[in-house]
Amino acid sequence: METKQIIINGVFYIILTTLFAILWIKEKKVVGQIKIYRENFANWIIKKLNIKSKRTQKVLKKSINFTESIGSALILVLIIQKFYLGNFLVPTGSMIPTIVPKDRLFGNMVIYKFKEPDREDIIVFKEPVENKVLYTKRLMGLPGETVEIEGEKLIINGKQITDRRYSNLGELGYNQWVVPKKGDTLTIKPNGNYIELAKEQNIDIKKIQENLLAQPGALSQILPDVTFYINGKKTGMVLDYIHDKDVLEKLLKGETIETTITEDYFLALGDNTDGSYDGRMWGFVALHRIEGKAFVRFWPLNRIGLLK
After folding, report:
1. Could you tell me what percent of the chain has a pLDDT over 70?
2. How many CB atoms lie within 10 A of CB 283?
3. Which member of 26, 94, 167, 233 is catalytic?
4. Whether 94 is catalytic
5. At what angle do helices 3-25 and 27-49 cross, to 10 degrees?
6. Containing domain of residue 77, as a range?
7. C-alpha neighbours within 13 Å on the C-beta side of residue 290
8. Of 7, 41, 249, 278, which is the most buried if we count CB atoms within 10 A?
9. Residues 112 and 60 in one domain
10. Burial of 116 by CB count in 10 Å (0-12 exposed, 13-18 middle, 19+ buried)?
11. What is the pLDDT of residue 208?
């Protein structure tokens, strides 16, 4: 991670933590000031609506007090979960036996603001398919490494790096991929001109994106023979670029896309290899998508413990 970004993140967290400290130290004064603003606002509403009934005024003030209290608490919780300690519910079995469905986890949301993830970290990230759901997987492939699966073993740079079993599913299958790193040259190459086909089928860019979301890992069914290369070597999908409207338009015209990777990427896999929808199907995870490191399970109570 660049020193400049670390400094920016450091300044941000110093300011945010200082604000929290001030709120805690001057809690009574802050609460008192909020109470004054709250009462002034309630009186303004009463005057604006010309409310004469004392009972209605009392109900309105109680409603405003309740709404403000809940709203303030919710904002604080969301800030804490976003920037300090995430709280996650795992809905699927992709990480069995390490994590099972309905487990609740705490995530360290600070650590990756100051360093890049390490191999074997259990990361929480915004998946690159729909760009809205948070996944929990184990990070296995690092930027610049070659990854493949041989004999149900994960091979990194020609060496087996774990005894954990991995099946040859998805686009990775029996192929060898290069994990993109910042500065690499990414080439996306179509094998023809599909613009006329798109017109005949009345398919526009938006429709193609919808098809891609509906059939992740099946680009060949949407744009035939589209292949990704890193520094000239065939690799897996880099969906951050495919979702770009300008890139899709050029691919439809049969144009080859060549660009420079602007950040590091990683390969994330599920421990439940036969039941995990992971990087083998949809490719790589950009650094900016990784939000935190899952480090402890706090529910159910009989399974509380650190995650490894």
Report:
1. 89
2. 29
3. 94
4. yes
5. 80
6. 3-83
7. 29
8. 278
9. no
10. middle
11. 62
Give the whole-angstrom CA distance, residue 217 versus residue 227: 12
Last residue of a domain, one of 49, 83, 117: 83
Looking at the structure, do residues 169 and 265 belong to the same domain, yes or no?
A: yes
130 and 149 both lie in a single domain: yes
Whether residues 108 and 187 share a domain: the answer is: yes
CA–CA gap between residue 208 and residue 46 (Å, rounded): 53
CA distances from 165 to 132, 160, 219 (A): 29, 11, 27
137 catalytically annotated: yes
| pLDDT the model gives residue 196 | 62
Give the rounded distance of the alpha carbon of 73 from its chain centre: 25
Where are any strands of DSSP class E within 131-231? 134-141, 146-150, 153-156, 159-165, 176-178, 185-189, 227-230
Output 66 or 1, whichever has higher pLDDT: 66
Domains identified in the chain, total number: 2
Contact 85/77 with Cβ under 8 angstroms?
A: no
Say which residue the tokens 């070597």 belong to: 233
Q: Domain with 95 in it: what CATH number?
A: 2.10.109.10
